[in-house]
Amino acid sequence: MLNVQKKRVFLRADLNLPRHDLLDTTTHNARMEALVPTIKLLMQGGNKIILATHIGRPSPRHNTHFIDEQLSTKLLVPKLEHYGFKIDFEPDLLQAAKKSVQNVTTILLLENLRFFQGEQEPSRLFAQLLAATADVYINDAFGLIHRNDTSVTLLPNLFTKDNRSAGLIVEKEIATLTALTKEPAQPFMLVVGGCKVKDKIKVLMTFLHAPKHKRASTIIIGGALALPFLKANGYTTGASPCDQADVAVAMDTIKAATAAGVSLVLPTDMKVTSKLGSGTLQTCSVTTIPNDSICVDIGPASLQVFSQQLLNAKTIFANGTMGIYEYPEYQTGTNGILASIAANTGLTILAGGDTVAAAYKENIADRVTFCSTGGGATLAFLGASNPYQEMPALKALYANDTV
User: Fold this and answer.
1) Strand order in the sheet with 218-221
2) Structure pTM?
């Protein structure tokens, strides 16, 4: 990160916290925790911080009377003040430009950038309004490196190379994830869960098609992501939704794994229920899932097999949960896998909002090597052949630089 002294610094953060976190000042959040060192380092240099982020996906505002209090960054004020920072919230960008030259001891917090039409609809004018608040641009929003928002693509180009840089979070993310793709210690295992096959397939293929010394030796698949793989193997998945296009992708992945000599480990049993949140839970083999039942977690036999595999790993990358984590009764598989990862003494990396949140909830985040602040961004980075050209925010940040 740039060593800046007594400057106005536009700090693009990713504090896109869940709504329940925003409304509960006592809730721990990994993204905010990770940003604190960057803020403290900048303040030690006597810099004025102009802090910008987005929260949720509100409609852009077209007049000064628009407000969505549930998605306003004003809700971040008490959470930031918890760390001892003095916050001056300013929703008006023209006023923010005037205030940015005042009172170095306070952080100037801008309104949710997605309230402004120019953020998601590329706008040089909006970028110029933001640039008027600062002398230096720092992007510490790793979770947005794959996005095209104005504040992470057009805005950095309004600052010279000497006056823009990545923040501490982005630097750490890049260093850690790059090391994972270079030459991971073997056995190298991927643990992939969640539900979006299209979000995971590129990273799966990256580690399936990599040279043997970089290739994953084992891929463990759980959660709803396992369903199209089970269906591709001829099993039924009950009443759980399973898109045929995902089944086709799963079949291609199975073929690629076979060709690469990579072991795909799928659940052998599942916890199922007839009604989410209130139906009776039962465990059944993947060969006997009832037609009217929804798969909500991996079963105990699967958890035991997955955990045994993880004992032997020297490198682990995990993304996604093993069940529908929003319901406490369906968290057993996820928590069990996380405990096994935390017990491993090798390189262990967690990614994805639900995965990292679960690690903090179970008090094991400090027992893994690294918790990524990105979800889709982490997968996109790992799946890219050249992240500095394929990730829009990184491409803008390092434009004309030798990387």
Assistant:
1) 263-265, 218-221, 188-192, 315-319, 347-351, 370-371
2) 0.90
Using CA atoms, how far apart are residues 96 and 52, in angstroms rounded to an integer? 11
Q: What angle do CA 245, 250, 252 make, to 5 degrees?
A: 100
* 319, β-bridge pairs: 192, 351
**For residue range 54-94, what is the model confidence (pLDDT) as tens digits?**
998 887 665 444 567 788 999 999 999 999 999 999 999 99
Same domain, 64 and 198: no
Tell me the C-alpha distance between 283 and 275, whole Å: 14
The pair of structure tokens assigned to 148 is 């095209």
Residue 182 has pLDDT above 70, yes or no: yes
User: What per-residue string of b and e applies to 269-297 under the rule 16 or more CB within 10 Å gives b?
Assistant: bbbbbeeeeeeeeeebebeebeeebbbbb
Alpha carbon 315 to its chain's center = 19
Which of 115, 137, 171 is the endpoint of a domain? Answer: 171
Query: 302 falls in which pLDDT band (50, 70, 90)?
Result: very high
Q: How far apart are CA 108 and CA 19, in angstroms?
A: 22
Structural domains of the chain, count:
2
CB 235 within 8 A of CB 286: yes
CB 73 within 8 A of CB 53: yes
Q: Can you give the residue range of the structural domain that contains 128?
A: 8-171
Residues 44 and 82 placed together within one structural domain of the fold: yes
Residues 251 and 135 reside in one and the same domain: no
Summarised one tens digit per residue, pLDDT across range 42-52 is 999 999 999 99
Q: Supply the mean pLDDT for the chain.
A: 91
Tell me: do 195 and 167 sit in the same domain: no
Among 2-16, 26-40, 299-313, 354-368, whose mean pLDDT is lowest?
A: 26-40
What are the tens digits of pLDDT across the range 227-261?
Answer: 999 999 999 999 998 889 999 999 999 999 999 99
Residue 321 tokens, joined: 């949960």
In this structure, is residue 149 part of a structural domain? yes
Q: Do the domain assignments include residue 34?
A: yes
DSSP assignment of 363-382: T-GGGSSEE-S-SHHHHHHH
